[in-house]
Amino acid sequence: MQVASIEHSESPVFDQWGDVHSSGVSWGAVIGGAFVAAALSLIMLALGAGFGLSVVSPWSNVGASAATVGMAAIIWLILTEAVASAMGGYLAGRLRTKWHAIHNDEVHFRDTANGLLVWAVAVVMTVAFLAAAAASMVGVVPNSGDASIPPASEGNPYFVDRLFRTDHTGPANDDLAARAEAAQIFSHALLRPDASSADTSYLAQLVAARTGLSASDAQKRVSDTLADATQAEDTARKATSHLLLWIFLALLIGAFCASYAATIGGRQRDHVKLV
Length: 275
Prior knowledge:
The protein is mainly α and 275 residues long. It has 8 helices and no strands.
């Protein structure tokens, strides 16, 4: 016996009061779609990282160039955000509660809002997970506990080491106090180059005393090292700025994809017939 397909209908009283007093946000569908979007983002990021590590090499002139890897990473980031957000938004649209007595424009707005909420919750979840993972990895880095050695984030250790390079060998502990003091001076000189003439002069005296260089050669070494460190920080700043702009673009595309896909899923949900 064949069961005829009929349109789902409710009484006018239920349509009038049930939809009016129902929430415009289907939180169950939103949270479900956000979990799917976050999971897909992590999976695709892991896949992209795997491909990226397979084409790079620690040796110079081997493997893909840094510019090629960077551009591929940006494209993959945008693709990841678009695909994951669209899938999460579509699921939220298909799984949300059907509204019977709501105008089509209002239904479209609610679907868009639900998709945007999916994207927002997924981004917060993904960032929280990655931040927790990063904090966990940083927490397991061993600490020597020697207060006389400045942390790696202070004084640009590579450039401080350049200051004290010498052909004269001696006990390593003899330089610890000088290096710690030089690291603080070096950091301050980088932050305030317009007011660091006295600091750089004193730093040149430390370098001359520890390396055996003449006063002029020590001053030149300090000036050159400060210039190189400033250039390195400026390059890192520009790279970080460009990365943040691309991340902003990827997140903006993800928000649009999630909102639009939710409207598609919602329309398909509304066309379902009960049998």
